[in-house]
Amino acid sequence: MTLIPAIPLADLAAAAAAGLHAAFGREATLTATAPGRVNLIGEHIDYCDGFVMPFALDRAVVIAAAANGSQEARIGSAAGDTATIPLDQPIEPGQPKWANYVRGVIRGFQDRGLTIPGFDAWVVSSVPIGAGLSSSAALECATATLLEGLTTTSLATRDKALLCQQAEHTFAGVPCGIMDQFASAFGQADRLVLIDCRTGEPTLVPFTDPGLTVLVANTNVHHELTDGGYAARRKNTEDGLAILGKPSWRDVTMADVEAAWDRLGGPVNRRARHVVGEIARTVAAARALEAGDIEALGPLMAASHDSLRADFEVSCPELDTMVEIARSIGRSGGVIGARMTGGGFGGSTVTLCDSGRAEAIAARLHADYLAATGITPEIFASRPSAGARLV
Ligand code: GLA
After folding, report:
1. How far is ligand 1, taken at its centre, from the CA of residue 180, in Å?
2. Burial bucket for residue 235 (CB in 10 Å: 0-12, 13-18, 19+)
3. Cα 39 to ligand 1 centroid, rounded to whole Å
4. pTM (2 decimals)?
5. Chain-centre distance of CA 132, in angstroms?
């Protein structure tokens, strides 16, 4: 079997509780979880007032915690050094770096005037790290959910997601949009999270057909959004909008971009073509889903990938290879559509396919990708799953 099964939530929670006990000698009194996400379509347009259509994965971060009666948080994980965070002063980024997502969220609670009691916590995760599947948003949203429990407050889901996005901006240095945190916070079983990033309104779109499977293929080429490529793309789009003189990308047409092509100059003109095209593709995909026309998603996903590769330049040879393999399997082999997903520069692809062929398609992706690149990929299937919550 090629497909990597999901670890049941109960097992992750038990592992987190065991880690807490082993590291700090405490029994868990609170356990929070939040999922990673995969994006079906709508890439690199959440920070352009666009539409995006991710869903929450059945892979998640789980944090088990207990009050420790002190004024500090001690947070451990098998993946890194334990962080000790003083809670009686405004928190700044520090070492170990992985804990900055946690620090940023604590800071968001402090900034809202909430006093966090000292606690010990242990983090486990089944979200692949650096794979474009929002392991960091999952950690942020799980932390925020834990802190809601510890402070006995309940933030509005939207506020919680925005607090987590802010943590990513100021404590991890990634000027991300709202997609990942919204997907992790608002996700629901059997629902896509269609987000209008201009209004900040999520709409839950049913995705229940058992005949459809979403395959996620992690190329295992590392993805690092802090190295400037992401911020540079975002800056390109801001420059483009300023040159076009429009208040929002939603007010820009393809004719506007073509008319201003030389004035925009390269690469900003190509970035602009991606943004306007991808907004239109995502709207078309949402309409097609609503109409039950799943086949329409194939060409839209293909055009999305090509645009991300050629115009937005956030793909890489390994992502292109994985998408090419899916394309070569084609509709007759059960593939409806495939594209890169997430921030890019490595990471994962998403392949929409017939459920009856999913296992065979995954086996082909695995074998052909390994043969072409020498890298072993990780492939799994996920249905849309529940968002951040206490367990
Ligand atoms: C990263 C960011 C998101 C989004 C995607 C690209 O995942 O965190 O906000 O911009 O890249 O669609």
Report:
1. 7
2. middle
3. 9
4. 0.97
5. 6
List, for residues 335-365, the tens digit of each pLDDT value: 999 999 999 999 999 999 999 999 999 999 9
Residue 316 has pLDDT above 90, yes or no: yes
Coil vs helix vs strand at 354: strand
Can you name the residues that pair with 77 across neighbouring β-strands? 80, 123
Site of tokens 């242990």: 122
| 213, β-bridge pairs | 353
Q: Which of 46, 120, 180, 311 is catalytic?
A: 180
C-beta of 176 in contact with ligand 1 (< 6 A): yes
Nearest residue (CA) to ligand 1, atom 11: 343
41 lines ligand 1 (CB under 6 A): no
pLDDT tens for each residue of 21-46: 999 999 999 999 999 999 999 999 99
How far is 350 from 38, CA to CA, in rounded Å?
Answer: 7
- Ligand 1 centroid to Cα of residue 388, in Å, is 18
Among 40, 39, 47, 42, CA closest to 233:
47
| Pick from 72, 73, 78: nearest CA to 16 | 78
